[in-house]
Design a protein that fits this description.
The protein has two domains: 64 residues, no CATH class; 203 residues, MFS general substrate transporter like domains (Growth Hormone, Chain: A). It is built from twelve helices and no strands. The N and C termini lie far apart (51 Å).
Length: 293
């Protein structure tokens, strides 16, 4: 990558996605979704296909949706703000925004820190450290790419830790814990550190913010009823995109004035995520998923 450039890095990063794009052709839609959408015929075809591929015979009878029997329809956007879900929706939107803001922020800010030639990030700007050695942007070296790869691999232990802890602490406390760890190790980047410690702290911060992202991915579908599940998850994901849109201005533009600015902003944002996670009114651990709102 040192000699090939960032364009080839993007090409190689995108190649694995082709596998998942083609695999979607063979992924069936869930029968439950078809029933909730009032498409009983498609739900029956899905169940027949499942039975056929498993060598089973589908039981005789007629598919009946209890929600339809009870006069319940698919939820609307306004249903996300019914009294028993209003606070949950607002807090979840904020948590998703914080998650994306902090996650993509540490990803982008990592390259800025690695390009900085000074070990004391609290008192210098990105532009100052670049201009101190050259009139041009300092390209990433082989060691930089190696450290970037190592911080990227941190997401694997982060997901494993999340999968383990989430069943003990519950969803809310797990998110709060992971936001807290991210905040602590982000704030530590303010101090004068050698390259190994910077890489280690970024590794830990990225592992836990990645875990927090996966935790909210688990929590959101669990907290919404079937009639609102897709809408709730989709709207929350849209809020995350807002955080992802804003974060480059902090990680790269604000770093041009002071490296401490992004560090403080990301640390405080994660602390706000801690508070929002603990304020969620519903803990979904061991809770039966609702069918309707």
């Amino acid at each position: 990558m040192e000699t090939w450039g960032w364009r080839w890095l993007l090409v190689f990063s995108a190649l694995p996605l082709l596998f998942f794009a083609f695999s979607c052709i063979w992924l069936p839609e869930s029968a439950r979704y078809y029933m909730a959408s009032g498409r009983t015929d498609m739900a029956l075809k899905t169940l027949q296909k499942v039975a056929r591929e498993n060598g089973k015979i589908l039981p005789e009878g007629q598919l009946v949706d209890k929600a339809v029997q009870n006069g319940q329809n698919r939820g609307s956007f306004a249903s996300l703000f019914v009294p028993n879900l209003r606070n949950t929706t607002i807090l979840l939107w904020f948590i998703w925004m914080c998650n994306a803001f902090c996650y993509y922020g540490i990803v982008l800010f990592t390259t800025v820190l690695f390009q900085s030639t000074d070990e004391c990030h609290g008192g210098h700007s990105y532009n100052e450290t670049i201009n101190a050695t050259s009139t041009e942007c300092r390209p990433l070296m082989q060691a930089d790419y190696f450290d970037l790869l190592s911080t990227t691999l941190s997401e694997f232990p982060g997901l494993i830790i999340t999968a383990t802890v989430i069943e003990f602490l519950g969803r809310k406390k797990t998110m709060a814990l992971e936001f807290s760890v991210y905040s602590v190790f982000t704030f530590l980047l303010v101090f004068c550190l050698d390259r190994r410690l910077v890489t280690a702290f970024i590794f830990i911060a990225r592992a836990f913010i990645s875990g927090a992202f996966q935790c909210v991915y688990v929590y959101t579908p669990e907290v919404y009823p079937t009639t609102l599940r897709a809408l709730g998850l989709g709207s929350s994901s849209a809020m995350a995109r807002l955080g992802a849109i804003v974060t480059p201005f902090v990680a790269q533009v604000a770093a041009g004035y002071s490296l401490v600015t992004p560090i403080v902003i990301y640390g405080i944002s994660a602390l706000a995520g801690v508070v929002a996670s603990l304020l969620l009114p519903i803990e979904t651990k061991g809770r039966q998923m609702m069918e309707s709102h």
